[in-house]
């Protein structure tokens, strides 16, 4: 074990309900999620001295601290690249705690991503920013490629061509997620499983992606509380150690449009994350008991299984078709239903599920969980966690 | 394509004029009266004996532009089996070019027609060319020549051209609401190139490495004074998508966006136009088709290689 592994722990998780219309401000969602997470941990707002979120979050650390009555902050930080930030917020917290600059750090993400600004729409504003991001986007948006679904579809088409994967292979990921969500009362799609035939019959978004290959747009907030492993032992919940936390950005990296690398069939930024995670935690992919894989679009779940080393390149479709990602499979994936089934809270609800699986309190609990892998947004500079006892 | 369009066109052309079609009625005053009224043509030589004589005619004459009227087949009329346009239309329908639009009509009048003349019309196939890529879709131009006779005397001729086409996807671009690129000092050469009708690829001034998308510093050697080369405009589809939802400004769904691997070795995104989305394949040969949106923007689109 090297670096930050095991020195910090997640001691509290909190969330609002997940919906299509929260009927409240994003700041209120953030404040409610943070308060719930602190209550779960048995901590008070006055114990908090650090806040971390995504650059995309619309709620400043100062505003959240003000609503919670947090009297002083000693550490605040934000991570870029959309959903790629999720696990890196916990890494920021663990780094601050390991360095002694903060003691209790809350990571949060809250938005009205369905009733307010919808990420699935074509955003002309994103493509006109006078920044390097705007210049990058100018190689795709003016050509008509500017929704997350279309950006992923371009990679998915190539992946199908090279590996022989089919739309049905993508669909099996959605079916598994929705089956898991169907027994999760917190999931938006609670009680609403789908069949592969329904996936195939759902309308095109951007070929080769059907509607049911795409995660839902959601309203909601999630927060997690991180503190030192020592302090964690005295708190309300059994500590969930941050065994590893890593970021990764790959060669010739773009945000959602890394189309100019030699191959279009991998996620090298996730490979960079994985190598660090296994090294920090002192484990290999074979030691992972549950994986919470970022699933905004189904093809990237197959590609993650390969990139993370759960199966050889090009063989994820067989891994999935053989039942590998079911609750009782070789690698239970997204027992809460994932972002396809529970809610799309930019990966933060996946971290909360990882914590529950280690605690043993998940609604679809996997037996004998030692190590949970959680990944953040794919197709972008990203991050990952290994959580454990 | 199993239909031998050019071979059949050669036979039809060699057969020359088809059997003549006789006018249903002779050139007559009531029809002239209807026509000049409908078109608002007040020239009195078409309706007044006196005016016609004053203009040097022996009597009332028919408006020359009415020539097609005299040999129209009528509401329930059918073209003859040997009519060359009928033959080519059926052949192209069979080959999938099911839509039609008239593109040219040139008429030549040898003299005025007088009331009482009884006309006949023949049709000959002049030319068939294609397949051509057009804004409407791929199609064939069919040119016929009609001659009207009074007795044995040719009195008028018409060259008539139609486009028989397979309706393609709307050639998606791009209007006032088109998404405009953010142009930096590093990327201006590319957009200036498309506006000038050139597809430019950044080339390192020091080590010669080609690069797209371009940037200010060569990742291979660190040099920071790049130039560019002109792309041949040829490439193959490396990957592609067919976009249906949600709406995209300046585009009509469904439309195709392709990631093209240029023969120079770099990849470039662009719209793929002039092709049915269902026909696109990875590996398909394409060529650059710069699409001018307006003075400020020309997009690097692609189309199937000819
Ligand atoms: Zn160089």
Briefly summarize what is shown.
The complex is a heterodimer of chains A (389) and B (306). With 389 residues, chain A is α/β, with parallel strands linked by helices.
Write the layout of secondary structure elements.
The complex is a heterodimer of chains A (389) and B (306).
Chain A: E1 8-15, H1 26-41, E2 50-54, H2 61-68, E3 75-79, H3 86-99, E4 104-112, H4 124-127, H5 132-137, H6 148-163, H7 167-181, H8 196-201, E5 204-207, E6 209-210, E7 219-228, H9 229-232, E8 240-248, H10 268-281, E9 290-292, H11 299-307, H12 316-321, H13 338-341, H14 348-359, E10 371-375, E11 382-388
Parallel strand pairs in A: 2-3, 2-4, 9-10
Antiparallel strand pairs in A: 1-7, 1-8, 4-7, 5-6, 8-11, 10-11
Helix pairs in contact in A: 1-2
Chain B: H1 5-15, E1 21-22, H2 29-39, H3 49-54, E2 61-62, H4 67-70, H5 84-94, E3 99-109, E4 113-114, E5 119-133, E6 138-150, E7 153-165, H6 188-195, E8 200-203, E9 210-211, E10 227-230, E11 234-243, E12 255-262, E13 267-272, E14 285-294, E15 297-304
Antiparallel strand pairs in B: 1-5, 2-4, 3-7, 5-6, 6-7, 8-9, 8-10, 11-12, 11-14, 12-13, 14-15
Helix pairs in contact in B: 1-5
The structure holds zinc ion (ZN).
Residues 204, 206-207, 209, 218, 220-221, 223 of chain B line the site of zinc ion.
Quaternary class: heterodimer
CATH class of the largest domain in chain A: Alpha Beta
Strand proportion of chain B = 35-45%
Shape of chain B, please? elongated
- What fraction strand of chain A? 15-25%
Backbone shape of chain A = globular
What's the CATH class of the largest domain in chain B, please? Alpha Beta
Descriptors:
heterodimer; A: 389 residues; two-stranded antiparallel sheet; 11 strands; 17% strand; B: alpha+beta; 2 domains; five-stranded antiparallel beta sheet; 6 helices; elongated
